[in-house]
Amino acid sequence: MKKVVFFVDKLTSSGASKIISWIVNNADLEDAQISLVTYMPIADQREVGKSVNRINFSIKENNRVKRSLLVIKQLRRLFRKENTDLCIAFLPMECLYALTAAMGTKTKVIVCERSDPYLEKSPIVDFARVTFRFADGAVFQTQEAMDYFPKVLQRKSIVIANPAFKRETASYVPYKERPNEVSFSGRLFIKQKRQDVLFKAIRKIIDDGNDIVLNIYGDGPDREKLESLAKEMGLNEKIYFAGNVRNVEERISNSKMLVLSSDYEGIPNVVIEALQCGVPVVSTDCSPGGARLLIENGKNGYVVPREDYKSLADRIEELLQNDAKAELMSKNALEIIHQFDETSILLQWETYINSLLEG
Prior knowledge:
2 domains, Rossmann fold, alpha/beta, 16 helices, globular, 359 residues
């Protein structure tokens, strides 16, 4: 029996955790024994099936260098003990740990880039990405992300988009029946998500005479800064910070639209989720092209230049002021379910992983 390890730092509500838990719970991998390995001492926020061997190293070391060495040591020990055939690592640092731990063993490594190699940068993350060339394979979310890396890696890599997950909640709400509210869902982290740009757009929309409320779902390190910024801009009664909520898709489904203001993303899962609800999306052209992959301008939403709050505001106003057009775009949004079919995308993962197991 083949042994396959999926490796990530922790299982949270993040997009990477969502994808990795979905694969381990559903993929047919040549009758392989699947293990899901994490190392942060944090309780899981995603469910893992009973057939999956769940391992958490639960490393409590705060020093980053010492923690990294401990992770590599324990991962290497696991590879040798279990005679692991393949490790599939998500996120740059975890890919580096897996590649280092696999040295001198039979274990092959697939690295998975889930964000933007062009803009999400730091010396250690840049170094981690340099080591990707030594992987046996790689999975990218967009072609632009793959193009960042050398040809030696591209030749053994694949692009697999995120799926539109099957679901039973958040039924379609006709556009005219929705209140004058727009939604943002994501981490409160200004450097990436650029909520400052979104706030400027909301200010312009209100100054243009529109009555609108922005609901923000999610939390993060910049929540206090953003609450202060909203107050400074006179928007404290127009921007509602809801925090993390369980029924976020149902809430988004009752919005006029979802708005994304990020400078960079992988493939934003929240855009897929909104479109599945029949909610049009107005998004910045976040690098490396995930929004453009999902949104067809004028059909199910709009894509505007990054940092351009005026264009963001104009497109939001266009939908607010044209119910007929917005209703058509809402219905068009539902096509995402077929374009990014869950079964088809899972098959891409299965085929690629099995090709490495058989090779």
